[in-house]
Amino acid sequence: MIMALQLPSVGQAADMSLQKLSESIIGEGTVLQKYKLVSGGRSSIVYVTRADLNNQYVKVGPVYGTNGQVTVRQNVKKMADEKGAIAAINADFFRMDRKGAPFGIVLDEGKLVSSMGKINSWYSFGLLSDKTAIMSHLGFTGTVQAQDGTTGVIQGVNKEEYNPTNDKSHLDKINLYTRDFGPTSLGAIKGYDDAVEILVVDDMVKDMRVGNPTGYTIPTGGYVLWGHGAGKQYLMQHFQVGDPVTVTLQTTTDIPLDGRTLTSAVGGHVVLVKNGQALTNIPSDYISGYQPRSAFGISQDGKTVYMVAVEGSSASKGITLDEMAQLLKQLGAYNAANFDGGGSTTMVARQLGNTQTTLLNTPKGGSMRAVPTGLAIFNTAPAGEFSNFFFTNDTKTVMGKATPITVKAYDTHYQPFALDPSLMTWTANPADGTFTKNVFTPKRSGSIVITGQYGNVKKNLTLTVASLDVADMIVSPGSLGLRPNDQANVTVTLKAKNGQTYTASPDMVKLSLTPGLGVVNGLTVTAGSENKSGELVVTYKNIVRKIPVTVGTTWSLWSHLDTTTGLTYTAVPAAVSADGSFRLSTEGEPAQSGKSLRLDYNLTNSSNIDMRFAYGRFAPTIALPGKPLGMKIWVKGDASNHWLRAEVQDANGKIYYVDLAKPVNWSDWKEVEGRFPTGMAYPVSLRSLYIVDEEDSTLEPKGTLYFDDLSLEQPGGGSSVGVTPPPPPPAPSVGGFTDIAGHWAQDTLLAMYNKGIVSGVTQTTMGPELPVTRGQFVTFMDRAFGWTKTGEAQAASFTDKIPAYAKSSVNAAVAKKIVTGFPDGTFQADKPISRAEMAVIMHNALKQGYGKSDGTAKEKAAYKDEDAVPSYAKESVRILSELGYLSGGDDGRFGPTRTATRAEALVVIKRLLDNM
After folding, report:
1. Which residue from 350, 448, 353 is spatially nearest to 406, judged by alpha carbons?
2. Using alpha carbons only, what angle is made at residue 148 by residues 143 and 150, rounded to the nearest 5 degrees?
3. CA dihedral in degrees (293, 371, 286, 123; nearest 10)?
């Protein structure tokens, strides 16, 4: 049944309608619901898991890390399955550029795994000893006491560096680490290289180290006290090996417990619903707008817990925090708080009959993110009696095909139940087909009803059976090249005379390999350990197909990449595509041999909430010879820790993504390798080399990579794998540009290109005589003088939109009083700049110290069109002309209203630059 509910408009939240699409029991006292949420014309999918704490078999608590180590992150499904949860959702925030300790608390049935971070506005989920759930602002206090009676303050337990409210988490502090933190203690990390660590076992100091970068492996019954600055000074002055240590740790709440204790907790975020009121104007931190969201809610009596995930994908637009608050209230939450959202939003649940959970929502990045913590629901009921079963197999099959009929079952407590196959009975009309145990072989086409019975439960299943008069058989791929001991799957397609196609199951065809080549199991080929060539033979009745198989590969250098052409740069989001470049290196730049490929990327002027990409594209793609199974390429890294990948395109136009390095954590030359996926249709080509900056990134958004010497892995001895360059370049050019040879500004244009101040308008053209816009001119000047390198300037208040590529440059220029807008309040960044306007901007820059203004003025004849210079520009044109920064044409005219060209703009900027 689909129910429609109308949510009222409160504050900034838009009117919303909520439709229940499905509801099912997944465990004792636990229900899974799916909704369609429509808000402001946007549609989103919402998943809700609701647990009743009045049920004696319902348990709610945290899941975290891997094998109890909180910084060994894994996705929510793996955490839930590891601990046997029936449902779970991601919880706390963390730093993706570190190991990933949570900012908030992890309290697991009285065990403090990670203390609550000292963040004033964040609220957590908690469970009390009487199984009442709470939303509370939790706190932490901790002390360490020496044998002389002195005490030091412990800032936190199992925390990485983060920014508490009005404080620093590790600066001048003492932190404590247990075995729950990870394989080792924190150690002397960057910025805290001289930190001291004291290993305590059985409450006695066993060892002390200063500047230990690897940390301690903490034994059972032990922990580590970590100190920096004042904290280090206290520890070193009051402890030595053999001394006793007393540690006191306490978690506090902001609500009365009335004799109860806090038994479990997991960190959250900002409050969404408080005492029955959905909040508005909720501070979004850096996760604003319409995003995937995760949250928890609690009923007024604290006995119902809601876990809510709003999907954000191509089919689900996500919601704002204010809308999330309205949603939680409508679902029944009296109190609710946010969890980490965006790419972290994940909800999993274990459907009846299953032993593991399945992913419910489509994650923002396409796959589940590894996170440190989650909130989970458990069914603690003991094994019960058999209750019910259901069919799980496909209902479509082919006449004559042996079709296994599969089922799953659950018991009276909704726990998975293992059926005894000998007690399951199967029946069908003898004219329809025959059973061998649970495998049914249909004798005719059409609809066939079969019956399964277990105990007193009997169910029917209708199979749709197709007839199959095979005319042809297609085996894919058409050839196999395998590394020793590798595996590959083949697909066999049977084509009927009526044109319909069917994918053959392993029992329908026979596969065999040349002896010594490897083994076949079903439709999977496993190569042997010896280099060898042969064939795979596939047989269906009287139809036989043979495909060549080669085991063993050879690596060979294929191209130095010195003459690669058609290099282009693009980025996602597209608004920052003008901020990078992809080109051949020039003299003096790093290279392994000859020239290299240089990728400059700058994603600064885009949001870090979503994944960002910077592509060095080959246009056209570079055709790779033979049937390569992988590639190696030398990369001079930038220690950015970004993800480096390649795009490979097959003969059908399908794009495959090849991992080369994750992360790029080096700054010298290093050869990286990427394996091509199986199943590609050859020939293949290289489409791009690119970096990925993942969601919510805190990495440096700009950098430079160099690529050189591409090698390919070919099957067997490999053919055509020697050094074969890509297609030759076009006619000789200057610096790779075909339109500046002999131009009056040739040297300046090339110099400004090499400095990164200007890019080509295409890979091979500079466009020296093209007009330059106001936005482009200011951007050129910013790149020349580095106005934005010291930080973002306050946004200028123009009434028109500034293009993304020029926004920061224009803001900086306005802040420095170098540019102003027009009287109507616009800046008109896309308007071609006149020579008079260019003179005024240059003069303003000169006044701010960009270029020398105290040089010797030159005697010069007046321009023939001096009267045509606008009054606002007369002084600027005169002074800049006298100082030699500006000049007129051969006809003695200045041309104040004429549009400046790219060449003119870059020449005058270089003159200023040369006089700094």
Report:
1. 353
2. 35
3. 70
Q: Per-residue DSSP letters for 513-543?
A: E-TTSEEEETTEEEE-SS-EEEEEEEEETTE
Q: What is the mean pLDDT of residues 586-597?
A: 88
* Residues 580 and 602 sit within 8 Å (Cβ to Cβ): yes
Mean pLDDT of 678-706: 90
Task: Give 22's contacts (C-beta < 8 A, 6+ positions apart).
Answer: 33, 34
CA distance 448 to 834: 81
Structure tokens at 447: 């609809």
The model's pTM is 0.69
How far apart, in Å, are the Cα atoms of 420 and each of 144, 411, 440, 455?
58, 13, 18, 11
Q: Residue 611: its pLDDT value, please?
A: 84
Strand ordering across the sheet containing 386-391? 386-391, 407-411, 416-417
Gyration radius (Cα) of the chain, Å: 34
Exposed e or buried b per residue across 355-374, where buried means at least 16 C-beta atoms within 10 angstroms of its C-beta: eebeebbbbbbeebbbbbbb
Host H or E run for residue 141 = strand 139-145
What type of residue is 848?
Answer: Q
Q: Give, as one character, the DSSP assignment of residue 834.
A: B
Whether residue 720 is predicted with pLDDT greater than 80 in this model: the reply is no
For residue 581, what pLDDT is reported? 94
H or E element that contains 294 = strand 293-298
Residues 6+ apart with CB under 8 A from 299: 305, 306, 332, 333, 334
Q: 3-state SS of the chain: helix, strand, coil percent to 5?
A: 15, 40, 45
Q: Could you say which DSSP state residue 470 is in? A: E
Of 24, 25, 7, 16, the C-alpha closest to 44 is 16
Q: Can you tell me the mean pLDDT for 459-474? A: 91
Beta strands in 625-697 (DSSP E): 630-636, 643-649, 655-661, 669-675, 684-693
576 and 606 in contact (C-beta within 8 Å)?
yes
For 371, the token pair is 């996170």
pLDDT at 4: 37
Supply 606's token pair. Answer: 């885009």
- pLDDT higher than threshold 90 for residue 610: no
| Residue 390 exposure: Cα atoms within 13 Å on the Cβ side | 8
Please answer whether residues 408 and 354 qualify as being in contact, where contact means their C-beta atoms are separated by less than 8 angstroms. Answer: yes
Dmax (CA) of the chain:
112
Q: How many percent of the chain have pLDDT more than 70?
A: 95
Average pLDDT over residues 258-283: 95
Tokens in use for 626? 């033979």
State the DSSP code for 625: P
Q: Residue type at 480?
A: L
Return the residue matching tokens 């592509």: 615
DSSP 3-state assignment of 701? coil
Amino acid found at 598:
R
- For residue 103, with 0-12 CB atoms within 10 Å meaning exposed, 13-18 middle and 19 or more buried, which class applies? buried
Pairing state between β 543-551 and 480-482: parallel
pLDDT at 403 > cutoff 70 = yes
Give me the chain's average pLDDT, please.
90
* Cβ neighbours for 849, distance < 8 A, ≥ 6 positions apart: none
E strands, 311-420, in order:
312-313, 316-317, 335-338, 347-349, 358-359, 373-379, 386-391, 396-398, 403-404, 407-411, 416-417
Closest by Cα among 646, 688, 633, 639 to 663: 639
Rounded to the nearest 10°, the torsion over CA 467, 473, 476, 481 is 140
State the pLDDT confidence band at 679, using cuts at 50, 70 and 90: confident
The pair of three-digit structure tokens given for residue 868, joined into one six-digit string:
């045509």
All residues at 6 or more sequence positions from 415 whose CB lies less than 8 Å from its CB, including other chains:
27, 379, 381, 383, 384
How far, in Å, CA of 84 to CA of 396, rounded?
A: 34
Rounded-to-integer distance, Cα 7 and Cα 10, Å: 9
